[in-house]
């Protein structure tokens, strides 16, 4: 295990701090990256009437007619010339002129740093990778000189979408960064801004943290062999798990952790140890094996391990959940990662994974220096009775969360993105409409649905919402199982639903969706210290933001899948990676809600996908 881990780290160039660990602030970045960033357009503020009209259309399938009519009147009042809507819109437009991105700071604060629920399950996604097979001690060795060398001076290859360049800023936030808890609001730090960027990673085994320098004294990166030997030293010096799981503190409610954090770092030794973890390029978690699972349950168990570690008895204390990037390697070959969501979305993370996996397939021999390496430094913590109490509280809360999470990770093997493409349909839209059908079949109603849309076409862009529930998707799901409807009509409705989703997606990535604009208008009102407009206190607004389905497509070349928890107590979290001939799915729910069941929705989704395929194949001439 250690040998393959070492080879992965070196081959991917992950030990090269001159790579991704670069400045956060665009204004401080020089060279090609800055030139690229300055060439990107600013995020637009959509027209007020357009957003209000589209908001009403989005409400149509999810609120009753009486409530919809009430909201229509509120919106008419809101849009009156010289009224509150016009004033807030002008305020937003002024903000957009002054700032690089009118939304990004607000979004970071409201979506992440002000959010007080634990990051575990509620915020931080996990990624399940194919199981490692451990054959030899270390496998091939190769130099990391080919790794991330093209990341020097912020020269990562620019990504494009539809021929347009994308903002690359998130890539420079992932390494050497960490979330810092506060009693009311968190912060994020990136130590790559230091004059001397970090040159170490942290490794945690049996709840014990170590600093592993990944550079030799002559500034050359360690070879595979050297990293293997250092990991072996760590492993052998931490075989006993009788230490307090200090890392489990990071899993607690953010206010509780903020208070415990302030108490923890009063001690100088503790403060230095915590700082070493925060400054590290990333963390490697060497996990104990979870109880064996059958082959069909392996992916689900791996999802559990990536999301929360299995509880205080297993690996939940073998983490520092505030760390942006943590690679997880189990004794049984289970592997993946978990990342703290504040600095970046999923695509940069899976791009990094794809890069790692590709580099591990290549081989190149390199000579290992004979210079002996010093023992990796073990980080010490002085545990007072108060800290011990905080740890026990965090253990209890973690175990409650672990027992409450209901998750199903599976592979849909009937077809992949190849089939929708053969029908000239968007694979993502096809899956989203199938999800609408699955939910409707179980609950006999449509629900607010969130799908993440990238705003990286704009400078410092993060995300907006694709509202997958539309008037057209509602018409299709109601017709699909209606025996009075002919297949030709069903196919026409399916076609229309998929085109509507595609149109909303295009609108969202162009910065013309409604959710972030409405949020901006609300926050502008709060900033102006004005009374909150009635549209934001309306029942419809609360319903619209209660996402029973929180979904994301995170496509990767690697045969992996991302997983995350629901965003509401009676909801589901659904993530998927469509491959050519199969689709990887992760569905989550909470056991505390009697109305939700992850396995039932996962099965319903499979059935819906198969039924939609059969419908199209049975009526080939009905396509419009």
Automatic annotation (TrEMBL):
Q: Provide the Choline/carnitine acyltransferase domain boundaries.
A: 43-606
Q: Which GO terms describe its biological process?
A: carnitine metabolic process, CoA-linked; fatty acid metabolic process
The name this protein carries in UniProt is Carnitine O-acetyltransferase
Top EC category: transferase
Q: Keywords in UniProt for this one?
A: Acetylation, Acyltransferase, Endoplasmic reticulum, Fatty acid metabolism, Lipid metabolism, Membrane, Mitochondrion, Mitochondrion inner membrane, Peroxisome, Transferase, Transport
Record-listed CoA binding positions: 417, 421-428, 502, 553
Q: What is its EC number?
A: 2.3.1.137, 2.3.1.7
The reaction(s) this protein catalyses: 3-hydroxybutanoyl-CoA + (R)-carnitine = O-3-hydroxybutanoyl-(R)-carnitine + CoA; acetoacetyl-CoA + (R)-carnitine = O-3-oxobutanoyl-(R)-carnitine + CoA; 4,8-dimethylnonanoyl-CoA + (R)-carnitine = O-4,8-dimethylnonanoyl-(R)-carnitine + CoA; (R)-carnitine + acetyl-CoA = O-acetyl-(R)-carnitine + CoA
Active-site annotation: 341 (proton acceptor)
The similarity comment for this entry is: Belongs to the carnitine/choline acetyltransferase family.
- Location of this chain's protein in the cell: Endoplasmic reticulum; Mitochondrion inner membrane; Peroxisome
Q: Name one Pfam family in it.
A: Carn_acyltransf
Task: Write one Gene Ontology MF term.
Answer: carnitine O-acetyltransferase activity
General function of this protein: Catalyzes the reversible transfer of acyl groups from carnitine to coenzyme A (CoA) and regulates the acyl-CoA/CoA ratio. Also plays a crucial role in the transport of fatty acids for beta-oxidation. Responsible for the synthesis of short- and branched-chain acylcarnitines. Active towards some branched-chain amino acid oxidation pathway (BCAAO) intermediates. Trans-2-enoyl-CoAs and 2-methylacyl-CoAs are poor substrates.
Any idea which positions bind (R)-carnitine? Answer: 450, 452, 454, 463
């Amino acid at each position: 295990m250690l040998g393959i881990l070492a080879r992965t780290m070196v081959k991917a160039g992950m030990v090269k701090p001159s790579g991704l660990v670069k400045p956060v602030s665009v204004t401080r970045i020089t060279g090609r990256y800055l030139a690229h960033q300055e060439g990107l357009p600013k995020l637009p503020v959509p027209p007020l009437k357009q957003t209000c009209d589209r908001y009403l259309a989005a409400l149509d399938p999810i609120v009753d007619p009486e409530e919809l009519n009430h909201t229509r009147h509120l919106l008419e009042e809101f849009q009156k010339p010289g009224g509150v809507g016009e004033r807030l819109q002008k305020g937003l437009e002024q903000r957009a002129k002054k700032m690089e991105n009118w939304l990004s700071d607000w979004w970071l604060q409201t979506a992440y740093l002000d959010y007080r629920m634990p990051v575990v399950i509620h915020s931080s996604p996990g990624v399940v990778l194919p199981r490692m097979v451990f054959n030899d001690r270390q496998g091939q060795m190769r130099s990391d000189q080919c790794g991330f060398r093209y990341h020097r001076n912020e020269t990562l290859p620019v990504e494009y979408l539809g021929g347009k360049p994308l903002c690359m800023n998130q890539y420079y936030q992932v390494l050497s960064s960490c979330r810092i808890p506060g009693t009311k609001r968190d912060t994020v730090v990136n130590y790559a801004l230091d004059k001397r960027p970090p040159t170490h990673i942290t490794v945690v085994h049996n709840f014990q943290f170590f600093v592993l320098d990944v550079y030799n004294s002559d500034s050359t990166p360690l070879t595979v062999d050297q990293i293997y030997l250092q990991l072996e030293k760590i492993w052998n010096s931490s075989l006993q798990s009788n230490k307090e799981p200090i890392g489990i503190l990071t899993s607690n409610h953010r206010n509780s952790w903020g208070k415990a954090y302030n108490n923890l770092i009063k001690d100088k030794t503790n403060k230095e140890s915590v700082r070493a973890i925060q400054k590290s390029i990333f963390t490697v978690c060497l996990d104990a094996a979870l109880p064996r699972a059958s082959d069909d349950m392996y992916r689900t168990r791996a999802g559990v391990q990536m999301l929360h570690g299995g509880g205080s008895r297993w690996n939940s204390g073998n983490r520092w959940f505030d760390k942006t990037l943590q690679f997880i390697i189990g004794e049984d070959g289970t592997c993946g990662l978990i990342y703290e969501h504040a600095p970046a979305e999923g695509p940069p993370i899976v791009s990094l994974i794809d890069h790692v996996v590709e580099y591990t397939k290549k081989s190149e021999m390199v000579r290992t220096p004979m210079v002996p390496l010093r023992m990796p430094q073990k980080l010490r913590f002085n545990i007072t009775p108060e800290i011990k109490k905080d740890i026990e509280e965090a253990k209890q809360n973690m175990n409650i969360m672990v027992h409450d999470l209901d998750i199903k990770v599976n592979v849909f093997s009937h077809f992949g993105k190849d089939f929708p493409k053969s029908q000239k349909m968007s694979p993502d839209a096809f899956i989203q409409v199938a999800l609408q059908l699955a939910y409707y079949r179980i609950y006999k109603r449509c629900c607010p649905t969130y799908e993440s849309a990238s705003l990286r076409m704009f400078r410092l862009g993060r995300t907006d919402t694709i509202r997958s529930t539309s008037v057209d998707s509602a018409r299709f799901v109601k017709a699909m199982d209606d025996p009075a409807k002919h297949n030709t009509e069903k196919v026409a409705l399916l076609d229309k639903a998929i085109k509507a989703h595609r149109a909303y997606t295009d609108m969202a990535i162009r910065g013309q969706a409604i959710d972030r604009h409405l949020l901006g208008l609300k926050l502008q009102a709060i900033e102006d210290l004005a009374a909150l407009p009635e549209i934001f206190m309306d029942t419809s607004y609360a319903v619209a933001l209660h996402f029973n389905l929180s979904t994301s497509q995170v496509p990767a070349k690697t045969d992996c899948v991302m997983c995350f928890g629901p965003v509401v107590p009676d909801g589901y979290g659904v993530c998927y990676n469509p491959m050519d001939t199969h689709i990887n799915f992760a569905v989550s729910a909470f056991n505390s809600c009697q109305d939700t069941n992850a396995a039932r929705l996962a099965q319903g989704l499979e059935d819906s996908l198969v039924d939609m395929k059969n419908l199209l194949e049975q009526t080939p001439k009905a396509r419009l």
